[in-house]
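User: tokens in, sequence out, please.
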């Protein structure tokens, strides 16, 4: 929180508070001088009340702190605060290809990804609209963008795996979900972003040569729509699954290493951010960063009320101390 002041010249009033502090210290020295000048020390102990000692100084310090806070409040401090975005939308696109069965992430990629996504949805601001897209060879809009976060978490928990990885179609489906949102009062579309989690690269659809289209083909439609796609490359180089690749009924080891570069290119090409996560804890941290960026924004706001509240608290504590120790208000 970087403070500025709307009326900084009023901070000169702090000199008055400093003068009071100096005067208080001076009075303490004068009291000590008077006590020493009293010749009959035995009689002084009988007629003079017991010194309140440090308690008196605590009460005085509380008042000085309160006065300081009030002066700062009068100067009208302004600071940068984090506030929830209004009508912001995020589409979670989660890879449900068979490679997400890999157990290089405990307990496996898909279960840890689902848990992290649910935690993310439960933490973001209530007014953030969230949609859910799942993709393997086919793409499904599981939940249209909504502020009913409970429906999103339930849909995440129901996700099931299938063959293939259609990243390009997942992006275009997410874009259509965003385009379907009604405009705001000014006729503008609410700010939106796509967060795509995958452990591979695009394998469907294929081109005329029979080879899968590159993941980067999803950049053009996102650029045209003006929507950033942030990507999360999830998994480790050691990931593998056991599957019947050639149809002979015998499962064999299939390595499922993440194509981090393709996902990074997709994010960079659309103005998004590329993340990598090789564990459930790392994925949770990624979602925390995303929550900060897509769910909140920074605004300059006047913070006078905070300093007034702190000043009142300091006055109250000083008053309580005075009542407890001296049976009177200052």
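Assistant: Sequence out:
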């Amino acid at each position: 929180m970087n403070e500025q002041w709307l009326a900084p010249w009023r901070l000169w009033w702090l000199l008055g508070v400093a003068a009071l502090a100096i005067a208080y210290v001076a009075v303490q020295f004068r009291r000590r001088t008077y006590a020493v000048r009293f010749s009959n020390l035995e009689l002084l102990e009988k007629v003079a009340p017991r010194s309140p000692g440090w308690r008196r100084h605590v009460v005085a310090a509380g008042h000085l702190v309160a006065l300081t806070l009030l002066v700062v409040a009068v100067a009208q401090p302004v600071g940068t605060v984090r506030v929830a975005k209004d009508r912001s939308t995020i589409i979670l696109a989660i890879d449900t290809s068979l490679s997400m069965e890999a157990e290089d992430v405990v307990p496996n990629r898909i279960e840890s990804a689902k848990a992290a996504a649910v935690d993310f949805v439960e933490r973001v601001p209530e007014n953030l609209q969230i949609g859910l897209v799942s993709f393997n060879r086919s793409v499904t809009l599981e939940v249209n963008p909504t502020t009913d976060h409970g429906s999103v978490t339930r849909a995440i928990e129901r996700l099931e795996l299938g063959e293939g990885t259609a990243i390009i179609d997942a992006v275009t489906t997410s874009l259509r979900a965003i385009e379907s949102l009604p405009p705001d009062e000014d006729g503008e579309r609410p700010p939106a972003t796509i967060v795509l989690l995958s452990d591979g690269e695009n394998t469907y659809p294929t081109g005329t040569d029979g080879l899968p289209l590159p993941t980067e083909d999803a950049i053009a439609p996102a650029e045209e729509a003006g929507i950033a796609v942030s990507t999360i490359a999830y998994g480790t180089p050691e990931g593998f699954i056991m599957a019947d690749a050639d149809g002979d009924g015998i499962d064999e080891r299939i390595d499922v290493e993440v194509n981090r570069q393709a996902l990074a290119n997709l994010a960079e090409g659309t103005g998004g951010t590329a993340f990598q996560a090789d564990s459930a804890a790392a994925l949770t941290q990624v979602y925390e960063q995303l929550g900060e960026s897509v769910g909140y924004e920074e605004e300059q706001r006047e913070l006078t009320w905070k300093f007034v509240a702190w000043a009142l608290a300091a006055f109250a504590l000083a008053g309580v101390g005075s009542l407890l120790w001296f049976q009177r208000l200052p």
